[in-house]
Each structure stands twice: as structure tokens, then as C-alpha cells.
Amino acid sequence: MAERTLSTPLPVEKRKPLGSPALRENLLAYLFLAPAIIAIVLVLFYPILNLLITSFYSRPTFTRPSTFIGIKNYLEVLNDPIFPLAVKNTVIWTFGVTIGQVILGMYFALMLHRRFPGRWLARMLVIVPWVLPGIVVAVTWRFMYSQDFGLINLVLRSIGLEQFAQSWLGSRETAMIAVIIVGIWKGFGFYALMFLAGLQTIPTELYESARIDGAGERQQLRYITLPLLRPVAITSTVLGLIWTSNYFDAIFVLTGGGPARSTETLPMFIYNTAFSFYRTEEAMAGSNILMVIVLLLLAFYLLVVNRGNALQRRVQEGES
Predict the structure, then answer these.
(1) Cβ atoms 73, 256 nearer than 8 A
(2) Mind listing the domains of the chain with CATH numbers?
(3) DSSP structural state of residue 67
(4) 263 burial type by CB count under 10 A (0-12 exposed, 13-18 middle, 19+ buried)
(5) How confident is the model over 101-144, as pLDDT tens digits?
(6) Which residue(s) pair with 68 in the sheet?
(7) ∠ CA(165), CA(168), CA(265), 5° rounding?
């Protein structure tokens, strides 16, 4: 009996594989994503972290190494007499361009939503300025604004309005307006595309019912189109504020921040601080301040989106 017991093989307990089933199933996907994640960390997050750390140190010289100075660079930026002007110009530029893009984009979206011959071509042409490189757009408009050979002044002279021909980019009174017009022309196609997509989601039955009730086009626009486009308008506007606030190409090529710093926005202020006055650490501090502003706008955007999604879920739950 004892021999039989000893010769009987003992039951072997099977080892359970490590990790959750979802982790094991997605391990191959994680391996494929690893190079992209590593690239994003190295290209995006490492420079941001290095920028943040370096902004708390002094600029090294041949005789003195870089030392920790705390928030001194930030205080230098905030106490710079040009910084409030740059903030003011950034606010004017950002809201001027964004509001103009929204209005012009809405107008073209309403026009392109109608049926007419060649609509497909008109829709394609509207988004051409948006897809063009910013440098190309800025150089083109710079030639158009030329005082002697620019298209705008040539047209004014040809129709007898020579007294209005001037140096559009060389005057403090007109430079900011001129660059805002370029910004509006560059980006209104994005809003037209977004609003046009939103218009195509509105049920046509609503307009048919409104026409039966005697509502005109203005009433339909006010009580049907605009309210239903509100989520698209809010999302697009906040995104536009984020993009426009740190846009650099147009102002750099058109005016370089001039004349007399009348168009110097925060990105131009940071550029001039770093590459014109060689105060790189202060420029890093200014970049971090601009990054905080953009992150606040991004947080506001996410808040708006989340509230819109929550409202939509409540509406759907109420309908069900």
C-alpha cells in the first residue's frame, strides 16, 4: 500500500499566466505603439521639460557657469515694459482674427449650403487659403500691401482713390488691421468647412415645418440654424483662439512685430528676446508663460466639450 502510494504521481498545479487577459491580448498592440510613444516623449515632452528647468537658471558665459536663480527670469519678463504691449497686441490679434474668421466662415458656409451650378468648385476654392502654407500666404500679401507696386494701392489709384493709397504695413495705424485681415483670409476656410458640416446634419424637416408656419429665412436662421450650430461654433472658436494666440508666421513675415512694436505679439516678443537681444533664458520663461495661457484655453475647450457631451446625453436620455 505504501509502495503504491509512493509510486502514484502527485497532481501538478498549473501556473496561471501573468497579467490580465486584456493586457496579454493587447501586448502586441503596445509593442507596435512603443516606437511612436518613445518618439513623442523625446520630441515633445523632453523639450518642454528641459525648457521648464532651464528657465530657472541663469545664462552661462565663458567665465561663469549657469546657476539656479529661481523665478528671476520670469520677473524680468513680467517687468519688461514691452511685455504688457505684447499681451495687448496678442489679445487684439487673437480676438480680431478669430471673430472675423467665424463671421466670414459662417457666411460662406450658408452660401455654399445652397444648391447652385459649380458648388463643388466653390467649396474647394474656399478651403484653398487654409491649406496653403502660412509663409506663402504672408509673402503673397506682403507684395499686395507694397506701397509702390502692391495690388491694393494700384487698384485704389486706378479708381481715383489715390489719397487712400499708403504703406499699409509701415504705419502704426494700419499695420495691425492689415495683419488681422491676412489672418482672417488664411483661416476662414476652416470655419466654413466646420459650419458646412454642421449645416448638413440639421434635419431638413425643421426648415419645412418652419416654412409651413410662415417663417422667413431670417427667422429660420435665428431660431433653427444658429442654435443647432452652437456646439460646432463654440468648439471651433475655442480651437481658433488656441491656434491664433501662438501663430507666428504671418506677423514675422509681414511686419516682424513693427512698426514700433505695434504688431509684436507674445510669440514675436519671445522670438525677439531670444534672437535679437540674446536673452535666451528670459525667452524660455516667456515661452512657459505663453504655454500656460494656451493650456488654460485648452482646459476651457475641454470643459466646453465635456459640458456639451453631458447636455447631449441628458437630451438623449430624456427622449428615450
Answers:
(1) no
(2) 85-255 (1.10.3720.10)
(3) -
(4) buried
(5) 999 999 999 999 988 898 889 999 999 999 999 999 999 999 99
(6) 57
(7) 165
